[in-house]
């Protein structure tokens, strides 16, 4: 099952309080970034975040994004302030984005 653009719009509205949120389509699903850091994704109409200590502290339940993937944590809150606070807590625990190499001409 793939995620609809309507659900993507809903999640992006939930994340409106998070600075610099971007998304990338990936095989019918969406990867989510904040400040260049991959923090989660939308899989089968579910918002999932990376399994890091800050997310564990929020007592989120585990979910598998797709067969063969590492477990992630399911965000069930529909409160934009709660979701923004969760993502803000996750960001310091995630690796910084790698600088892109310039293409040779």
- Helix-strand pattern: HEEEEHEEH
CATH class: Alpha Beta
Strand order in the sheet with the most strands: 1-2-3-4-6-5
Radius of gyration: 14 Å
User: What does the main sheet amount to?
Assistant: 6 strands, antiparallel
| Coarse structural class | alpha+beta
- What do we call the CATH topology? Yope Regulator, Chain: A
Number of helices: 3
The helix content is: 10-25%
Question: Can you tell me about this structure?
Answer:
The structure is a single chain. The chain is of the alpha+beta class and 105 residues long. The protein has one domain (5-93): YgaC/TfoX-N like chaperone (Yope Regulator, Chain: A). It has three helices and six strands. The protein has helices at residues 5-14, 53-57, 80-90, and strands spanning 21-26, 29-34, 37-43, 46-49, 61-63, 72-74. A six-stranded antiparallel beta sheet has the order 1-2-3-4-6-5, with helices on one face. A hairpin with an 8-residue loop joins strand 5 (61-63) and strand 6. The chain starts with a helix and ends in a 15-residue tail after the last helix. It holds the Pfam family TfoX_N. This is Transcriptional regulator. Residues 13-58 form the TfoX N-terminal domain. It comes from Eggerthella sinensis. InterPro entries: TfoX_N.
């Amino acid at each position: 099952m793939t995620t609809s653009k309507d659900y993507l719009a809903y999640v992006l509205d939930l994340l409106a309080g998070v600075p610099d949120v971007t998304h990338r389509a990936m095989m019918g699903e969406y990867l989510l970034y904040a400040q260049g850091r991959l923090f989660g994704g939308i899989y089968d109409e579910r918002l999932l975040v990376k399994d890091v200590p800050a997310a564990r502290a929020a007592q989120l339940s585990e979910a598998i994004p797709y067969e063969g993937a590492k477990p992630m944590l399911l965000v069930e809150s529909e409160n934009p302030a709660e979701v923004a606070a969760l993502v803000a807590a996750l960001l310091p625990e995630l690796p910084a984005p790698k600088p892109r190499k310039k293409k040779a001409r």
